Amino acid sequence: METSTARRSRxxxxxxxxxxxxxxxxxxxxxxxxxKAADGECKHCSYxxxxxxxxxxxxxxxxxxxxxVPQHEFEQRTEGREYDExxxxxxxxx
Length: 94
Hints:
mainly beta, 1 helix, elongated
């Protein structure tokens, strides 16, 4: 049995259809490539990688806005990016 590593795309019409097709920008209506959508975005706080590297705040910071600075290691967001998105025409074209 052959295993395919090619990305797949799901119809996301109101998140109800879910039909799948091979990802192909030239053949799928309203195609959105989600593979790069979260590159460099932390799965815990959505800060970018440079923000994690640049922000250095002591853990005992007293200002409210300073307490929301990430106090965790950067982990790239991957969930929700397994499939690209498109519209398959399941609800018509007009």
